[in-house]
Amino acid sequence: MKLKRLLVMWGVGVFIILLVAYSGTILACDVCPAGCIYSSIQAAIIDAESGNIIEVCPGTYTENIDFLGKAITVISRDGPDTTLIDGDLRGSVVTFDSGEGSDSILDGFTLIHGTGVSSRLNYGGGIYCNSSSPTIRNCCITENTAAYGAGIHLRFCDVTIDNCTITINVATRHGGGIYAAASTLTINGTLLDLNMASSFPSGKGGGIYLEDSDLDINNSSLTDNRADDFGGGLYGDGDSAVSMNNTTVAENWVNNSGGGVYLYASAPVITNSMFEGNVAALEGGGLYLNRTSGSISDSLFIRNRTNSSGAGGGIVLLMASTSITKANITENTAGIAGGGMFIYNSSSSLISDSLISLNTAGSDGAGVLVSQFSSPTFINSVFHNNFLTGVLPGFGTGGGLAIYQSSPVTLTNCTLRYNFATEQGGGLYSELSDVLLKNSIVWGNTPDQLESLGMGDTPVVTFSDIQGGYSGAGNINEIPRFINLFNTHLKVDSPVIDRGDPSGAPANDIDGDARPLDGGVDMGADEYAGPVHPLPDILANSMGGNVDIDRSATSELVFTFGLDNCGHTDDADWWIIFATPSGVFFLTPTMLTEERLPFAQIPLQFFTAYDYPAIPLAGVPLGFYSVYFAVDTSQDGILTWNDLNYDWVTVNLTD
Predict the structure, then answer these.
(1) CB-based contact 180:157 (threshold 8 Å)
(2) Beta-strand relationship, 607-611 and 559-564
(3) 488-513 burial code (b ≥16 CB/10 A, e <16)
(4) Mean pLDDT (whole number) for 161-171
(5) Which of the ends of the chain has fewer CB neighbours closer than 10 A, N or C?
(6) How far is Cα 465 from Cα 479, in angstroms, rounded to an integer?
(7) What pLDDT score was predicted for residue 440?
(8) Mind listing the pLDDT tens digit for each residue in 378-421?
(9) What's the confidence (pLDDT) of residue 523?
(10) Which of 525, 528, 483 is nearest to 326 (CA)?
């Protein structure tokens, strides 16, 4: 349905002259505010036939349009920034209600000021779709209102939404951005931002609400949406299936549970996605899965939180069998329990190849809390630097993992390291539970490693490295020799290499390396695959790790340095750092200083042993002295711990 173009011959050239309308503007449109055949989009739709393309020039069109079941494309010439359809608070801005198919296409408009199809309640402020399957592209759907689906309402529809922005829509019930019932929804490259489901206390799905619907969302973002009840970014109910890939769920908020996403009776498949900075007043700051199966893989959960009375800062699993693999669950916070994850009420999920680190909680399970007859399995996972704040006096158990009234809870080839509890069970605490720990490392946790209530619920531990020792077949008590404080990969001389039990061990480690490699199964999440980074080595009087030295029996202290450069010859910063009772000092060739200066800036080289001149111990204050020997291949003179390859030794100087 294009307007005819005039072809004019001039000499040997052929020129296309487009129709010229008011004010001299060059037009190639079927609809424009003035000067075209149509000044109303709806009038053009009425005259259109199947297969027609209606091109709309920039302008604001105050009307409510209906595709009338026609297989047509309505497209703006210059995009949504300059072409608006204003519903004028008189109903839905756009309606698909006559069996439209995927060849009914809306492309390149801003839809604004819609209030929805009116019955007892309003549906679909921006777009109302019933029993149809249209395609929506390159649209901005904003400042619309309705009870259900302020931006878009779908019922018995199969809709594709590509490259759209759905923002600042307010639903008085559910689905601020989108409401889908008994529908199939595909979303690609779309932003849902600042939408709200505002019905207190029951508003669900600030960004998206699903009821008996399937969602496939890719390369999209759900940000800054709000709901008064469940699912700030997304709420799914009634057997809704959700597939989420390469999608960001960030800064969403709810007054109840599921700050980022809340799914009930679903089978989600979440891959390569990020949940960041979402907030729930009660449970599940990032993600709440209730009676779900499905899977989560290669995804990041970071800085999600609950309020002071909440649990499950990153993830909540309730009666769930969802499998989680290759997840990074870090820096999440729960007011009460389960900083990283809260697994409860008969959940039986598998968590594998995942990092659970730097999470905090007030009372129990800074990394993970398991309770109420749950039976999760942890494989090849690392619990690292999780921290209990102890806000409730008398509580404070399970810095890495707390387990209550659950059986069996199994950990195979896991590493629990440098976690902190205020009362007991720095690494793991169990109460009235059956816990099976195998081929694992529990080391450097505070105030202790493994604790239980002691009523027949002592964890069964085998073929594991437990600091301080622990009874059980194949257990050892030897410093694991990790690469450094932040890196749980093993050094070549780690005593846990080849010390695990191959029976029931996973076929790969946390990095995907085959297990075993060149021998037996290693303890912990990492299977030693050979040196990749330079490997510094430091000894104090020929001893490594934690060294006790009696000053009355030993007159001097000799530090021995070595470096396996593993073939690296890069320019590097070399550091020697002393952490002493008097402060932290940096050794240079000429002095010991508090200024952060490297010892040297030279290429990496291999050497087995260099003895630093002996230090007389007479008059040296008693206490703990930690000495770090490190190299950093970013030769910039800047100390960045995460970039360092280092070893350390701690000397306890006594008298």
Answers:
(1) yes
(2) antiparallel
(3) bbbbeebbbbbbbbeeebbebbbeee
(4) 98
(5) C
(6) 8
(7) 98
(8) 999 999 999 999 877 667 999 999 999 999 999 999 999 999 99
(9) 98
(10) 525
One-letter amino acid of 27 = L
Examine the pLDDT at 597 and tell me if it is beyond 50.
yes
* 3-state secondary structure at position 556: strand
Q: What is the secondary structure of 425-452 as a DSSP string?
A: -SSEEEES--EEEES-EEES-BS-SEEE
- The DSSP symbol for 374 reads -
Whether 395 contacts 368, CB under 8 Å: no
Give the pLDDT band (50/70/90) at residue 377: very high
For residues 349 and 343, give the distance between their C-alpha atoms in angstroms, rounded to a whole number. 8
Over the stretch 483-505, which tens digit does the pLDDT of each residue have? 877 788 898 889 999 999 999 99
Read off the amino acid at residue 627. Answer: V
Distances (CA, A) of 245 to 22, 45, 188, 300, 429: 47, 36, 10, 12, 35
Give me the phi and psi of 524, to 5 degrees please.
90, 180
Burial class for 71, CB neighbours closer than 10 Å (0-12, 13-18, 19+): middle
Q: Would you say residue 625 has pLDDT above 50?
A: yes
Distance CA 223, CA 234 (A): 10
Choice among 58-67, 77-86, 196-205, 421-430 with the minimum mean pLDDT: 196-205
Is residue 9 very low, low, confident or very high in pLDDT (cuts 50, 70, 90)? very low
237 closest CA partner among 159, 312, 292: 292
Strands 94-96 and 127-130: parallel
DSSP letters for 445-506: -BS-SEEE--SS-PPEEES-EETT---STT-B-----EEETTEEEEPTT-TTTT-S--TT--
* d(C-alpha 454, C-alpha 451), whole Å: 8
Q: What is the value of pTM for the model shown?
A: 0.84
Token pair in block for residue 26: 């060059």
Encoding tokens for residue 137? 């592209």
Backbone angles phi, psi at 23, to 5 degrees: 55, 20
Q: Enter the DSSP assignment of 516.
A: S
**What string of H, E and C letters represents the secondary structure of 385-399?**
CCEECCCCCCCCECC
